[in-house]
Amino acid sequence: MENRRSEPRLILLFSGKRKSGKDYVTDLIQRSLGSALCCVLRLSGPLKQRYAQEHGLDLDQLLSAGPYKEQYRANMIHWGETRRRADPGFFCRLATKEAWQPVWVVSDARRLSDVQWFQAEFPQQTQLVRVGCSDRTRQQRGWSFTAGVDDSESECGLDTGVQFDWIVNNDAGGASLDEQLQPLLKLARESADRH
Length: 195
Ligand SMILES: Nc1ncnc2c1ncn2[C@@H]1O[C@H](COP(=O)(O)OP(=O)(O)O)[C@@H](O)[C@H]1O
Ligand SMILES: C[C@@](O)(CCOP(=O)(O)OP(=O)(O)O)CC(=O)O
Fold this sequence. Notes:
The chain is of the alpha/beta class. It has helices at 22-33, 44-55, 59-63, 67-86, 90-96, 112-121, 135-140, 153-156, 177-193, and strands spanning 10-15, 38-41, 103-106, 126-132, 166-169.
């Protein structure tokens, strides 16, 4: 266990395919709850930081949703997997070490080892949330199938073998996101109140 100033009361551990809207939905939650209550943590944050450093790349562009990230994605996945094989909790520890808010929203769990790390460290607090939408919606958001990425563990590692506590449908023209997020926001506020 890390040496923290305070323990989180609730961790919403999000996963979903690329362009399903993980960043969009987690940003929405963070804005609704406010930064005193809630932070968004990205496991890909420290990964991209170190990858950019080692490869002399533009970190801001790697952090944004444009084509630059996609150009390096397959290689970043491979690089990250090598680090994770040596230490499965490596990026989880780095991403969470500065967090102090009572509610943590982790935007990008991808592998069973990510889920297992949070469940082992924070068994009472961790809730698994899946964001999903149709491939058609993902395509409208700029996705196209890329072999070596969309069929890799990075995208498929949580397709089976995990029981999600919450499922959010983020289809264009689908069920209202606001309505779907209400129970999660309520849980977050109640958990923080017990702080
Ligand atoms: N419900 C939504 N309404 C409008 N735009 C959305 C919605 N969900 C996602 N998007 C847009 O689709 C793109 C991909 O979403 P993003 O959150 O980056 O996906 P992911 O993090 O899962 O790859 C972004 O440009 C985002 O703003
Ligand atoms: C190498 C990665 O960390 C890159 C992830 O970048 P993002 O988390 O920005 O990706 P999406 O939101 O799905 O578009 C993936 C991994 O396997 O760890």
